[in-house]
Amino acid sequence: MTSKLLRGLGLALAAGALMATQAHAQEKPADFPQRPINLVVMYPAGGAVDVTARTFAQLAEEKMGVSIRVENRVGGAGMVGHTSLAKNTEADGYTVGVVANPFLYTDILLKNAPFTIEEFEPINEISFDPVVWVVNAKSDVGSMSFDEIVEHAKETELQVGMNPNSVFLFVSEFIERAKDLEFNFIPFDGGKQGVVALLAGDVDATASFYSEIEQYVQSGDLKPVAVTGDNRHPMLPDTPTLSELGVPAGGQAWGATRIFTLSPGVPEDRKAYLESAFLEVLESDEAEAAFKEAGLTLTPAGAQAAQAQYQESFDTLKAFLAETGRVSQ
């Protein structure tokens, strides 16, 4: 009896595993792909989105057995590439956008973009990179905790380096509002310039992504004091989230969420195949190791979760911009 039960249990488990594998692995369409798949990046080579695309392409070519190219369509801080994807892309599955939010959202909400979020259909989430609020470790506030910096800022106005109308600025405004502070914002063209100014002692604090400050954190020159998102950054386990510190900056609206997108209207079999095959690559041990080496943390998800997050983050950012008088509700 026991032998039969064990045998039956084994067969049931094997069948369940087979069904799970089949559910995850979508059959490759007979007619697709017949030429290379293009991953379109809106930013120059060497940046985090470009590194994301090239790291993935190298892994996916081997695992999927298809040719994958990375194409940089740069200009207008992402506007050129976003517009090209939305308006000049055939809905055939051969062109996949590697999109980073909230940068697509700010094009739409703040820059009068000639497209809407409905012209991009997420098929996978790739990664989430929270914003890190950081100070110079050798400055007057370098030995302080976040709460101590807040108390210091009530007496002495902090000089905070930011690029205008960016997620870095929005996060710092969240801190201002939550802690009843007023910062003096020093404008820069990008997050990297703010880091350079912070290292030089020209500002007291700035916000950035971990990949842009990793070497300076490891050398002891910069000190992270808080991060956005729901969880602590895996590379910064001792740095609290802003939500832990009383600043409501959870979720993925306040960071860079990188996703794969298609044009609406791609045939369902091709879309399902790309979603399944891309997710299998992203969930592999090889991908985890490769992205970790690049300073990026994977948060792989399929189309349903990616689309829900895409809409939720857009709505959250739009509400914030309306509250701060930047857009109408």
TrEMBL record:
It holds the Pfam family TctC. It comes from the Bacteria. Keywords: Receptor, Signal. Residues 1-25 form the signal peptide. The keyword Signal applies. Belongs to the UPF0065 (bug) family. This is Tripartite-type tricarboxylate transporter receptor subunit TctC. It comes from Aurantimonas endophytica. The lineage of its organism: Bacteria, Pseudomonadati, Pseudomonadota, Alphaproteobacteria, Hyphomicrobiales.
